[in-house]
Please model this.
Amino acid sequence: MDRNWPYVATGYLLTAGVLGSYTTWLLRKLRRADRLGAAAGGAPQAAIAADAGASAGERVS
Amino acid sequence: MSAQSRSVWQTALGAVAALAVGATVVMALFVVPADGGRDAFVRGTGQGDAYRLLFLHVPSAWLAYLAFGVTALASLLWLFPRTRALHWDLLAGASAELGVIFTGLTLALGSLWGKPIWGQWWAWDARLTTTAVLFFLYLGYLALRRVGGSPEQRAMRSSIAALIAFADVPIVHFSVSWWTTLHQDGSVFNAKMQIHIQDTSMQATLLLGVAAFTVLYAYLVLRRVQLLAVEEGLAERELEAAIAQRVAAAGARPREAVSI
Model:
């Protein structure tokens, strides 16, 4: 690595941080929503989100 | 497709995305040679190690185009009465969110590359400026989605906003051809569609990066749409519970209370 390595390292760490944080946040929210859905006595996540169509995919006139 | 097989398929997609992104990082940091400026690039840029940032910058920029393209397409499908369905609106919102993240990364990585190569963090160059405008346009789009109203009202206003914002994407892409810019022309192909990068390992790493980020986008957008669908389902149930609670408190029959 030449003298530009701090820029390169910052770029890679920044990308890992942003994408890693977003993915972690997303998967945690999904798990939490799954638990809440089950606790509320409603349909489980899989049924609600089935190809994003079970709840939201109905035709809207 | 059953819920279980869908879950397995999604986990596999996530694993492929993680592996591909990991392989891109290894290739970009440890396999491809530093840019010596003699053989690697047609113009002999001699960027040393700084050019390794482009293995993330270019895929991020591609992903921003793709994500906003999907948002525009999903918005069109919502606006077209024959295909109107709320899942297109959820897809548009999820994709725009990822587009904003990747546009932000594109700007940040470009800035980190620009400091050692151009000698400055930022220039009011046509490509950079139109990309910054794109970033803020879609931030506005995401803010617009949070304004109240029914899901149908939200879908209608945000679909129109998405199509207006998408007009900036071709301006960003062709800005390096239309104007004299500090930003170079295409990283893989130049304006005359001549291959810009000569080194085979650099080409392979760049293409791997583009493919890896595309798979990652597919995985994330799928999961984000699921979360939005779940949240909307939960919100509906919470609303129904609140209505039922008020109806019970008023001692009225549900149908009468709702009709009032």
